[in-house]
Design brief:
alpha+beta; Heat Shock Protein 90; 3 domains; 11 helices; 15 strands
Length: 378
């Protein structure tokens, strides 16, 4: 779980510093390393006051961590705060701080989100960035709740495993064990174990962990080969169609298992958008040259290098995504549907990150959704 929590903040565009209940640093993300001019290895376990030396316009020390550890959420509403880095460099910053709570709702630590203020930032930009950081702080504050939800799922799975194991052991101790019942119990144990492993894998994937086997693949061939199996698993009322634009084949370095998984997740998402109604899901493979502006519009695309990208696109004309839900669709465990755990699009984005790619999502409520996985070509 700690690895997943660390991976969650890696892709954030702001500096993130997390501390334990004693005020010692547990993790800083790459943006925090750059802002503070210190490596993660050097920062971890250090008292946070050694790195976060923040003063207000009058020169008074501000301690966002102490505020958060006291149970309050702190938001700096202006650019009158200065961060003094360990190297003595002064940087104007805005920041927020929130407490992190354990399963018993006790304060277990704090998270501080910072962003450097630049001279060209306008007042309007400041308000917009503050709103974004508030949303990020609230999402980070829910990480503890997410962890509790995952722990609850695992507890249920382990209870099933333990109960069925006890039944199996009791039957084995009988002089004439009921083999049929024993087999059923062992099958249920295996199913519970598989569910636990799958849930763990999905959490790891949503954090953007690097793929395990990079090969040069043909994307069109991969999609075509995957279609029959996916069609068989869908509601018979939903039809899969493939459309290829541009070159006959697009080659790129990728983990084929990860891309098949991403495609399956997107298709499942599209199928759920139709519910019990008839519909068509169109899958297309195309090529595009994306510049920095176009890449910045992708989820996870702001730091990508411009160039040639292969696009794997899944489109439906289902229910679409409500506008109020769009900012959170890639958040782990967020879902607009009763079915599922809200890991699907988070997994897709994680797979994109692990391939140095991004995801473009367009959706209108009542009209449908189009999602493209953009991956750099070989």
């Amino acid at each position: 779980m700690q690895k997943w929590l660390a991976a969650t903040v890696q892709s954030l565009g702001d500096a993130v510093v997390s501390v334990d209940r004693d005020g010692r640093i547990k993790h800083i993300n790459p943006m925090a390393e750059a802002l503070l001019e210190v490596s993660r290895a050097a920062a971890v376990c250090q008292p946070v006051q050694r790195l976060l030396n923040i003063t207000d316009v009058e020169g008074a020390r501000v301690d966002p961590v102490a505020t958060a550890l006291a149970g309050e959420t702190l938001m700096a509403l202006n650019d009158n705060h200065v961060l003094m880095t360990p190297a003595g460099v002064e940087r104007p910053v805005t920041f927020s701080a929130s407490p992190v709570r354990d399963p018993l709702d006790e304060i277990d630590g704090a998270v501080v989100v910072l962003r450097e203020r630049r001279p060209e930032d306008s007042e309007g930009d400041s308000e917009r960035l503050l709103t974004e950081r508030l949303a990020q702080a609230r999402r980070l504050e829910t990480i503890g709740s997410i962890a509790r939800g995952v722990a609850h799922d695992f507890n249920n799975l382990f209870a099933a495993m333990s109960g069925n194991a006890d039944i199996a052991l009791e039957e084995l101790s009988e002089p004439q064990p009921a083999l049929n019942e024993l087999n059923e119990s062992l099958v249920e144990i295996r199913q519970a174990i598989n569910k636990g492993a799958e849930l763990c894998r999905r959490i790891v994937t949503s954090g953007g962990v690097a793929p395990t086997q990079m090969l040069e693949i043909g994307l069109t061939e991969l999609v075509s080969d995957s279609l029959p199996g996916m069609q068989a698993s869908l509601n018979p009322k939903v039809e899969l169609r493939i459309k290829t634009d541009g070159p006959t084949e697009l080659f790129l370095p990728a983990d084929p298992l990860a891309l098949r998984n991403a495609l399956q997740l997107l298709v499942d998402n599209a199928a759920e958008a139709y519910g019990d109604k008839e519909g068509v899901i169109e899958i297309s493979v195309s090529e595009a040259t994306l510049d920095a502006t176009e890449l910045s519009s992708l989820a996870g695309g702001a730091k990508l290098e411009p160039g040639r990208f292969a696009l794997m696109t899944v489109a439906d004309q289902g229910c679409g995504i409500p506008s109020h839900a769009m900012p959170r669709v890639f958040d782990p465990f967020f879902t607009t549907r009763f079915v599922g755990r809200g890991l699907g699009l988070a997994q897709v984005l994680g797979i994109a990150h692990s391939h140095q790619g991004g995801v473009k999502l367009e959706s209108k409520e009542g009209q449908g959704t189009t999602i493209s996985l953009a991956l750099p070509c070989a």
